[in-house]
Amino acid sequence: MTKRTLGRSGIEVSALGFGCWAIGGEWQSADGQPLGWGKVDDEESVRAVHRALDLGVTFFDTADCYGTGHSEEVLGRALGKRREDVVLATKWGNVFDPATRTADGQDDSPAYVRRALTASLRRLGTDHVDLYQLHISDADPDRAGELRDACEELVGEGLIRGYAWSTDDPERAAVFAEGPHCTAVQHTLNVLNDAPELLELCERSELASINRGPLAMGLLAGKRQVPLEAGDIRSRPPAWLRGFGDGSGADPEWVGRVDALREVLTSGGRTLAQGALAWIWARSPRTVPIPGFRSVAQAEQNAGAMEKGPFTAAQLAEIGQLLGR
Q1: What is the pLDDT of residues 117-173, one digit of tens each?
Q2: Rounded to an integer, what distance in angstroms lies between the CA atom of residue 89 and that of residue 17?
Q3: How far, CA to CA in Å, does 324 sit from each of 32, 281, 319?
Q4: Average pLDDT over residues 188-205
């Protein structure tokens, strides 16, 4: 099990994608809230992307705002001449200032879609994006219909191959799903946070389920102590970042849930993170988890999950029982 199909597009991708939020480095909101994962070594990021490619990963997901453009630039440099070997996804909707590495609001206007894409294509060093995603999770559904139509125009011009909405709201995702070239929904999914309604929408509408947060921001990779580094979002977790409490450490309740699952998640010689990915693949044949990475070692561990494959139906049921579902 190393391949999946990107929804109704028929585009084939590796069953595991790599999320490129972390390699964007440090950036912040206007009020100083960290939005990155701390300092990064760009050369290590490039080596990690190359290692992922060598291990069969062909799907990379980023966003224009990650590191206020830096993630796209690093990813574009890393892919280089191998751009055509991968399926490339990015996002738009958040406004930012690269000079100060600061997020500066949102723009949900149809006119901004094209401006944002033009800038992303330049940073990525490519002439098209395979999957273009709205990055405003709570955008107005009526406005979203206009944005969907704008994406259809970009498909017609060959600038994108398909589009999606990054949202955890099934009703909003359904607005984009009405478009003929909508190919996916990006949403939170991990063993601690199931998303049955969104998975049902993906099945009903023939969409891929692109899964952000598959390792629960590190909790399902064994992360327990909040980093001391001030630029890491987990050191000052916003309200939507569940599992890290007030920033003093991982939430004890969440740690207990991880510990209860540890034996089954690490079965078959898997690491904890590989078990978390195995659960997602078993949850639906449409899922494509996109764990983050900042090093070659992380790239190797995550990619190694593909060799282990998904859990069986019996293991999936056992995990459900342990969680009281």
Answers
A1: 999 999 999 999 999 999 999 999 999 999 999 999 999 999 999 999 999 999 999
A2: 10
A3: 39, 20, 9
A4: 98
Longest dimension (CA), the chain: 52
Closest alpha carbon to 60 in 131, 164, 115, 134: 131
12-47 pLDDT, tens digit each? 999 999 999 999 999 999 999 999 999 999 999 999
Q: Are 212 and 277 in contact (CB under 8 A)?
A: no
Beta strand pairing call for 94-97 and 102-106: antiparallel
**Structural tokens at position 57:** 């990963």
The average pLDDT across 289-304 equals 97
95-111 burial code (b ≥16 CB/10 A, e <16): bbeeeebbbeebebeee
Ranges of H-type helices in 125-212 = 141-156, 170-177, 196-205
Residue type for 324, please? G
In which element (H, E) is residue 274 found? helix 272-283
Q: How far apart are CA 272 and CA 267, in angstroms?
A: 9
Contact 170, 137 (CB under 8 A): no
Q: Which residue has the tokens 């000052």?
A: 236
Joined tokens for residue 125:
């060093």
CATH 2.40.70.10 is held by the domain 3-222+283-308: no
Residue given tokens 């060959």 in the structure block: 158
* Distance in angstroms (rounded) separating the CA atoms of residues 171 and 144: 11
In angstroms, rounded to a whole number, what is the distance separating the alpha carbons of residues 76 and 110?
A: 25
Determine the length of the chain: 325
> Taking a C-beta distance cutoff of 8 angstroms, is the pair 309, 234 a contact?
no
Q: Are 65 and 313 in contact (CB under 8 A)?
A: no
Angstrom distance (rounded) from CA 252 to CA 68: 33
> Per the structure block, which two tokens stand in for 139?
């955008």
| Confidence band for 252, pLDDT divided at 50, 70 and 90 | confident
54-98 pLDDT, tens digit per residue, is 999 999 999 999 999 999 999 999 999 999 999 999 999 999 999
Tokens 């709205």 -> residue? 134
